[in-house]
Amino acid sequence: MSGVIANAVVFQVGWWIAVLGAGWAYHWIGPLLVACLVCVNVCSSAHPHATARIVIVVGLSGSLLDSVLSFAGLLLFIENPFAPWLCPPWLIALWCLFATTLNGSLRWLAGRDRPAALVGGICGPLSYYAGQQLGALRLGHHEIRSLMLLSILWAVLLPLLMHWVVGRKSADQSAAR
Asked: Each residue of 113-142: pLDDT tens digit?
């Protein structure tokens, strides 16, 4: 149980570091420190190789999703060192850190689609909204519409991610036998 709590605390610390770093124009401090937290979570997990694969896939997929949302005008990233519509480094780092929670502090959602959809539908858009309030990003011109779309996306995304992680875990355990 203490590992689950530690995972949740590490995620929250990383979220604050990345978002405040972006909001205060320290664009690379967040990704560097969050990368360290990701490494700690991966190395301390029960299955480091499986966790590393989850981090890579979720990190890339989430970054692609946020890049598409930015390209569509639903998310606007402040002072992005890459192209304005690409997911910025601080958010890529957060996607990777979020991935470590799927087998950690969010593990209790595995096989529970309705609670996962509820948690995703509420916490996902709230995270973006909080990021906007702290100056890291802006929601599209129609803020309420952007939040509603983010809510729908996250209500679908989190249960899908949990199914994938549970499936990965089963496949990894079968391969180990």
From this structure: 999 999 999 999 999 999 999 999 999 989
User: Tokens 């990190």 identify what position?
Assistant: 59
DSSP 92-143: HHHHHHHHHHHTTTTGGGTT-HHHHHHHHHHHHHHHHHHHHHTTSEEE-SSH
Percent helix, strand and coil across the chain, each to the nearest 5: 75, 5, 20
**Joined tokens for residue 54:** 């989850």
Q: Which residues pair with 77 in a beta bridge?
A: 137
Residue 35 Cα distances to 59, 82, 83, angstroms: 12, 18, 22
Question: How many domains, in total, are found in the chain?
Answer: 1
Alpha-carbon 49 to chain mean position: 19
Residues spanned by the domain of 68:
2-176
**Helix pair 2-23, 89-102: axis angle to 10 deg:** 170
Q: Cα separation of 5 and 71, whole Å?
A: 36
Query: For the whole prediction, is pTM greater than 0.85?
Result: yes
